[in-house]
Design brief:
With 153 residues, the protein is mostly helical. Helices cover 72% and strands 3% of the residues.
Length: 153
């Protein structure tokens, strides 16, 4: 078939088609078509994680800013460099490291954490991975505000 779906005919159902077994390219096309769904689910994951905090999702930005500035100033003094020279580079390294380590750490738990949804829905497995990456990208975007503020300072 031209849409990448392999279908089989079961002899006991009088020639009716069984459930299709999608190919990987079909899964990717479906995930791209439904990107708003995994994007909204990623946003919902972040909101659920921070719903009991006073700052809500802005806690992501606040905690990253406090950590980057505090450690950047301490390390800058320890290494004897100007804060205005050291802090932006430290902040970039910290924010990128946070994104990469968060994505790798969460990737190890993504399919296990979504096991009930995987068993009850017909979503492709890559859908859950894309949801996790979208969540980490949203967190990275929150942290990018810290980078802009440090570079402008």
């Amino acid at each position: 078939m031209s849409d990448g779906i392999t279908m089989t005919i079961d002899d006991t159902t009088d020639g009716e088609l069984q459930n299709p077994r999608p190919t990987p390219d079909h899964d990717l096309k479906r995930c791209w078509r439904d990107r708003h769904v995994w994007g909204l689910l990623a946003l919902n994951d972040i909101r659920a994680q921070y719903r009991h905090s006073t700052l809500g999702t802005m806690w992501i930005t606040a905690s990253s800013a406090v950590f980057a500035v505090t450690i950047g100033v301490i390390y800058g003094q320890f290494f004897g460099t100007e804060i205005s020279e050291y802090l932006p580079y430290f902040a970039i390294g910290f924010i990128v490291w946070t994104y990469l380590s968060g994505a790798v750490n969460e990737a190890t738990r993504t399919l296990i954490g979504q096991s009930s949804l995987i068993q009850t829905s017909r979503l492709p497995l890559i859908f859950h991975v894309l949801r996790m990456l979208a969540k980490n990208t949203i967190v990275f975007a929150h942290n990018a505000v810290v980078l802009v503020a440090i570079w402008l300072w």
